[in-house]
Every structure is written in C-alpha cells, then in structure tokens.
Amino acid sequence: MPPEDARPLLLFDSGIGGLSVLRAVRAALPNAPIVYVADNGGFPYGTKSEAEIAARVPALLGRLAERYRPRLICIACNTASTIALAGVRAALDLPVVGTVPAIKPAAEVSKTRAIGVLGTDATVRQPYVDDLSARFAGDCLVLRHGSARLVELAEAALRGLPTPDADYRTALDGLLEQDGGDRVDVIALACTHFPLVADRLAAVAPRPITFVDGAGGIARRIAFLTGDQSWPAAPAPGLAVFTAPLDVPDGLRRSLAGFGLETIEAL
Ligand code: DGL
Asked: Of the residues 10, 14, 103, 180, which has the maximum number of CB atoms within 10 A of its CB?
C-alpha cells in the first residue's frame, strides 16, 4: 500500500474569518489535515492599502508553505484574494485557491434584481468587483458597502464577547440606505468573517434578506483539485497558527476547537 499522504490543506486569513471557509471544507473533505493560519500580526487587512497587502501576503505565504508543506493553499480571505492572488500564484509552486465575492450566486437568486455586496473597504473598491458585477449581474443594481466594524464584531463574537445588535444594523444600513437599497433582496457576504455572524445580520434585517457567500464553491474547488489524492483514514486534529504572539482567550480557544483546531501555535 502507498504511504499515507498526510500533507495538509493550509487555509489563510487575516483573522478568524477563514473559519467560515474551513466549515465548508471540513464538510466536503472530513479527513483532510488542516493548518489554519490567522495573520493576527497583519490584522486587519480591510483598512490597508493595496500595496501593503500585495507586499505582505505572498511573502508570508511563502514562509508558511516552507514550514507546513501543504498540498494546497486556500486564501480564505476576500481582501487578500482580490488584491494578492496573482502575486501568490506567481511566487509559489503549489495550487492556490482564492476567494471571490459571491456576486454570481447572489445574482442567480435575486428576484428584485437588486443585490448588495458587503465586504471590507479594500475589497469593495477593487476593479475585480466591477468585473464580476458586469459579467454576472449585468441586469442588477449592485450596491456595495465596506465595514471594518463588522470584521471586529465577528472577531469579538468568536471570542464569546457580547456584540450589540445596533452595530450589526448599522453595517446593514450602509447598504440598505443607499439609493435603491430598499429593493435589495440578496446580500453577498464578501468578507469571510461575515458568514460567521450571518444569523445576527438576519436577526436585525428590516425584512427577509438572503445572505450568500463563497464557502461552498471554494470547498468544491478544493475537492476537485485534490480529487486524485489520498487522505488519511481518519480525521486528524487541526492546527491553528497565529503569525504574532497572542494570548489566546478561553472563548477563542473553544471556538477554534469547535472547528476542529485543537492545537494552537505562534509562527
Ligand atoms: N476576512 C477578510 C476578508 O475576507 C478580511 C478581514 C480584515 O482583515 O479586514 O476580506
């Protein structure tokens, strides 16, 4: 029998947002060994410039690839993907799967033909978003809003800290109070942090709104790209890596364990 292939999948985000992608990856590939990297040393990405992200992410992923020898890297972060995916692919000799704002799935289900894109400031200003809107939502009104606060709320929620309803409502209003916002029936959660608090957003929405994200599509893509590879016979405990020293609070430790990340280390 060939030796077991224990090479992990490496999922990367600025913080805990990529856990929303990990959830889908685990459902598709339950025995995949996982290294989950949170770049807390560079967090947050959404308020940084394109130049800062383009300089930081490929170099960091190069170090991480050397250290953890993954079979594939998933940039589980819209901000890093929309800005640095090409640079990472050019720098690494490994399959790299990125995260695309879920504008296509949003347009597919919108009945009112008015959709919202909720992401970070850095993501919603990318030409990539114009391109996706033109290609897949040409007949829709596409409104965008960047919210750094919603990223903080998701980080806090995963630490088990209380987060106020009013702050979720403010983030939604950033979209819904724009011209035409009263017609929006679907919102693409274009930051991987946001699906982690989708239930909170739904609870404060002024009317039923469908939230969509890209996690399922990313998991299917990873399963496709690794389709001819073998996996360990049983699920292994995953590893969470932080790029800067962090005193991991109990609430966060529990959340990470809930996603199968039992071991925590600093880079
Ligand atoms: N989770 C990230 C994204 O998908 C970014 C959060 C941040 O660091 O601002 O865009």
From this structure: 14
Q: What is the pLDDT of residue 247?
A: 83
Residue range(s) of every CATH 3.40.50.1860 domain in the chain = 9-99+216-266, 103-212
Spacing, Cα 107 to ligand 1 middle (Å): 22
Domain spanning 103-212, CATH class: alpha beta
pLDDT band at 1 (very low <50, low <70, confident <90, very high): low
Mean pLDDT (whole number) for 77-88: 95
Instruction: Look up 140 and say whether it is catalytic.
Output: no
Q: How far is the CA of 13 from the centre of ligand 1 (A)?
A: 7
218/222 Cα distance (integer angstroms) = 6
| 68 phi and psi angles, rounded to 5 deg | -105, -5
Element (H, E) at 142: strand 141-146
Q: How confident is the model at residue 245 (pLDDT cuts 50, 70, 90)?
A: confident
Q: Does domain 9-99+216-266 have CATH number 3.40.50.1860?
A: yes
